[in-house]
Design brief:
Blueprint (H helix, E strand, L loop, with lengths): L15 E2 H13 L9 H12 L2 H9 L6 H9 L6 H28 L5 E7 L16 E5 L3 H8 L3 H11 L13 E6 L3
Antiparallel strand pairs: 1-4, 2-3, 2-4
Helix pairs in contact: 1-5, 1-7, 2-5, 3-5, 5-6, 6-7
Length: 191
C-alpha cells in the first residue's frame, strides 16, 4: 500500500502503529481484572471467571488452559500455586475468554446502529526529530461506522487481520493524508 513507512523512527519520531493503539483501547474497554495474577486475589478472580460455568470452562480449555479439575480445585483452595508457565496460560486464557465474551457488546456499542463512533487520532511524537525533517501533523477526528472486522480481529488476537481491518475500514477514510496516521501517539474512542 502506498505511504506505508519502511523505516519508521529513522529521524527520531516516536509512536505506535494505529492498530496497536486500537487494540490497547479495546483492551481497556474490555475491563480486565486490575489486580495482577501474581497476587492471590488476582489469581482467584481469573480462575473464578474461567471456571464459573461449563461454557467458560470449555472456552478456557480451547484457549490453552488444560489442567485437571483436581489441580484447579487445589489452586482455588490455596493448597498449591500454579507454576510460572501455568500463570502465563491462565492469563492468556483469561484474556482470550474475556475478549470473546465482551466482543459482541463492544461491537453493538461501537457501531451504534450504523451511526458509528467518533475516533480521535493523536499524531506521532516528533519532538526528537530535527526541525527541517518535521512534518505538519494535525489532531484528527473521524466517525468510524464499520467496526465488525476490527472487533473480530481483536477478539481473535489476529494482529495482521486487525492491521488490515483498521487501515481498510477506518484510516483510509481520512483521505489523502491517511498514511500520515499509520503511526500515532494514541487513538481515542469510547463505547
Amino acid at each position: 500500500m502506498p505511504e506505508r513507512n519502511i523505516e519508521f523512527g529513522l529521524y527520531g519520531a516516536r509512536g505506535v502503529k494505529g492498530h496497536e493503539a486500537v487494540a490497547r483501547r479495546l483492551d481497556a474497554l474490555a475491563g480486565y481484572v486490575a489486580t495482577p495474577i501474581t497476587v492471590r486475589r488476582g489469581l482467584l478472580a481469573r480462575l473464578h471467571y474461567l471456571t464459573r460455568t461449563e461454557h467458560s470452562r470449555r472456552a478456557a480449555r480451547e484457549a490453552g488452559l488444560t489442567v485437571t479439575d483436581r489441580t484447579l480445585r487445589a489452586w482455588l483452595d490455596g493448597r498449591r500455586l500454579p507454576s510460572p508457565a501455568n500463570l502465563h496460560r491462565i492469563e492468556t486464557a483469561y484474556r482470550t475468554v474475556r475478549r470473546h465474551n465482551v466482543a459482541r457488546y463492544l461491537l453493538a456499542r461501537l457501531n451504534r446502529e450504523g451511526r458509528g463512533t467518533r475516533v480521535e487520532f493523536h499524531p506521532l511524537n516528533q519532538s526528537q526529530v530535527p526541525r527541517p525533517r518535521q512534518r505538519v501533523l494535525e489532531y484528527r477526528t473521524l466517525n468510524v461506522r464499520h467496526w465488525d472486522r476490527i472487533v473480530r480481529a481483536w477478539a481473535e488476537d489476529d494482529e495482521a487481520a486487525l492491521e488490515d481491518a483498521w487501515v481498510s475500514d477506518a484510516v483510509v477514510d481520512l483521505g489523502s493524508e491517511w498514511g500520515q496516521y499509520e503511526y500515532v501517539t494514541s487513538i481515542g474512542f469510547a463505547a
